[in-house]
Amino acid sequence: MCGIVGYVGKQKAATIILEGLKRLEYRGYDSAGVCVLKDGRLELAKKSGRVEVLVKEVARHHFTGTTGIGHTRWATHGGVTDANAHPHISSDGKFALIHNGVIENYSQIKTFLLSKGYGFQSETDTEVLCNLIAYHYAKEPAGASNPPHANGHGTGSGSRFLESVRKALQHVEGTYGIAVLCVDCPTELVAARKASPLLLGVGDGEHIIASDASAIISRTQSVVYLKDGEIVHLARGGFTITTLEQEDVSPVVDKITWSISDAEKGNYAHFMEKEIFEQPIALENSMRGRFSEDGSTANFGGLNLTASELRQIDRFMFCACGTAWHACLVTEHLIERFARLPVEVDYASEFRYRNSPLDRNTLFFVMSQSGETIDTLAALREAQRKGYRVLAINNVVGSTIAREANGGIYQHVGPEIGVASTKAFTSQLLIGAMVALYIARLRDMSFSDGVSYVSALKGAPDLVRQVLKQAPEIKAIAKRFARHADFLFLGRLSLFPLALEGALKLKEISYIHAEGYPAAEMKHGPIALISEECPSVFFAPKGEIFNKVVSSMQEIKARKGPVIAIITEGCELPPGLADAVITLPDCHEAVLPIVAAVPVQLLSYYIAVERGCDVDKPRNLAKSVTVE
Ligand code: M6R
Questions:
Q1: CATH value at residue 447
Q2: Ligand 1 centroid to residue 415 C-alpha, Å
Q3: CB of residue 421 inside a 6 A radius of ligand 1
Q4: Ligand 1 mean position to 239 CA, how many Å?
Q5: To test the ligand 1 pocket, which listed residue (329, 373, 626) has its Cβ within 8 A of the most ligand atoms?
Q6: 329 CB near ligand 1 (under 6 Å)
Q7: Are 61 and 48 contained in the same domain?
Q8: 370 Cβ closer than 6 Å to some ligand 1 atom
Q9: 527 and 519 in contact (C-beta within 8 Å)?
């Protein structure tokens, strides 16, 4: 939700900020704005619409300042208008502020500020915070400054500007990643975070604040991941980090391990297409170095649990949102099937308020591509508060969830930019399958079953390559069905979550109404939707339930519903039953969900393209949901 960038250096800030905003646009794309400091003035441009609209606007102004901030918005408070776009300027004209998050007590603060004579141009919570900083700055005696302190970066932590931001934040309830400029401090910037991601890129004579690494990667790979409650002050060519309570923080500078090309589309039309086709490599990266030498089980370096501690666990709880929640459902199936231990899966947003009773020997997992989803983070914190150890399966290194978890497994699939999750999903399925294997091998799974399981997982990337070769045929199917307004996705057992995922993919990028159901449940209600106008996508793999799924297809066909069947090699459908057939390679149960994900990703992608939808930036959505 919302992308923020701030720059202090020697280059034209607007150019660097706009480049950063283009890379952050997947976080929110309702409106965008930039503000630079020049000759003691704030120069501002902001527009509703995409970053490209802002680029044209900025081109008219020739901003030359070398300190600035920029924002791409996903609206929370206030509609999508130029006035509500960020940056916001305080009514005394001294401060400019960008914000990702929600200020929950903004209404009380606004009433107070109105009584003090501050005015407001927008309906946003952000403008309230900007004016609150101005209020504290005006109250602070001019020249007030704490003595500088040496932490190796040497800007000194104190200044009237910094202290005003700190004071304002002490009165704020809610979440924020902010960056602030002050006209009296032409080469300074103050940024802070609480439950919204923020990092600092440390470049050559320049510093960049951003919501995520994609905005800084073209300038530097050195990065400081800020923690909740920290404030960074960029000044005099250096930076200091302190807490809201004014304690000094020693910064840890990390290296980003991926490169700029990972965050670019290359020859693909969309990030989603690139990320679908990257899946074989992504899977290889997710499993690399994670199998035991004897090839019979998985190895995870970061669980921070010994085998005997894990042996005490007799129940698992998984929390996640959206696509990651679907991956948890598949993992539930595999752990129960192979390790014979009970698993509960909950939406993180429900778990955090449900106060559900948990057994003592429960191991708690959260799953999140971004590692910033606010509901998943809150579920993690709630479980930790209750004394549980929480492990995270997560893609973004240094994310809040990765840092707050007690251990975990990184996905290593590189940046996922398309709003619709694809390669992160199949990697989550793979890691879930590896977790199931690891636990099963600590219990009753035999050495030889472990060896076959590992060898099957190692073969997953090649099987996915085989399915990707069917892209032209799937594209043709997509063209035939692209104009239908409703779809059902039906599957059973480990492929029921794939039915949910297929429906989610289709609705989020093509705006077609779609529902996922267990195939046999269809006759308990959804069958009422069936007509020539509502195609059903069936997962019908080889196995004990194949004939049952075929019976469900017959029931659809009897009601004139078009059928798209996704079967595995060796399955035979009665002639004329399916209107279109996609055949997957036959594979191990643990690999089947990974392979089955690909055709529904491609189907949704090509349908959305056929309908002329903006695949990478679907309406109303944002990549990482950092507000409740
Ligand atoms: O970053 P996370 O995995 O925590 O994100 C969870 C969901 O917001 C995400 O999977 C969402 O459902 C995607 N748009 C699905 O394609």
A1: 3.40.50.10490
A2: 14
A3: yes
A4: 34
A5: 373
A6: no
A7: yes
A8: yes
A9: no
Indicate if 44 and 79 belong to the same structural domain: yes
Q: Give residue-wise pLDDT tens across range 402-430.
A: 999 999 999 999 999 999 999 999 999 99
Is the Cβ atom of 296 under 6 angstroms away from ligand 1? no
Q: Is residue 463 part of a domain?
A: no
Catalytic residues: 2, 623
Helix (H) / strand (E) containing 328: helix 322-334
The domain in which residue 274 lies consists of: 265-458
Residue 355 CA, ligand 1 centroid: distance in Å: 23
Domain boundary among 215, 230, 261: 261
**pLDDT per position as a tens digit, 570-603:** 999 999 999 999 999 999 999 999 999 999 999 9
DSSP one-letter code for 287? H
- Closest Cα to atom 16, ligand 1: which residue? 420
User: pLDDT per residue over 380-399, tens digit each?
Assistant: 999 999 999 999 999 998 89
Q: What is the model's pLDDT at position 74? A: 84
Specify the pLDDT at position 143.
58
Q: Are residues 554 and 578 in the same domain?
A: yes
Taking residue 582's Cβ as centre, other Cβ atoms within 10 Å add up to: 22
Distance from the CA of 310 to the center of ligand 1, in angstroms? Answer: 28
155-175 per-position pLDDT tens digit: 433 499 999 999 999 999 999
Residue 618 falls inside a structural domain: no
Per-chain mean pLDDT for the chain: 93
Residues of the chain short of pLDDT 70, as ranges, are 141-158
Give domain status of residue 142, yes or no: yes
Cis peptide bond prior to 87, omega within 30° of 0: yes
What is the structure's pLDDT at 208?
97
The CATH number for 52's domain is 3.60.20.10
User: What's the DSSP call for residue 533?
Assistant: T
pLDDT of residue 360: 85
Quick check: CB of 369 below 6 Å from ligand 1?
A: yes
Q: Which residue's CA is the closest to the ligand 1 atom numbered 4?
A: 368
Sign of CA dihedral 328, 333, 334, 336: positive
User: Which residue is associated with the tokens 């607007």?
Assistant: 14
Q: Is 214 in the pocket of ligand 1 (CB under 6 A)?
A: no
Tally the domains of the chain: 3
- Among the three residues 411, 439, 458, which one is the final residue of a domain in this structure? 458
Q: Residue 176 pairs with which residues in a beta bridge? A: 101, 195
Q: Can you tell me whether residue 193 is helix, strand or coil?
A: strand
Same domain, 419 and 278: yes
Ligand 1 contact via 494 beta carbon (within 6 Å): no
Residues 95 and 230 occupy one common structural domain? yes
Distances in Å between the Cα of 447 and the Cα atoms of 274, 431, 441, 458, 535 are 38, 20, 8, 16, 44
Residue nearest to atom 8 of ligand 1 (CA): 322
464 domain residue, yes or no: no
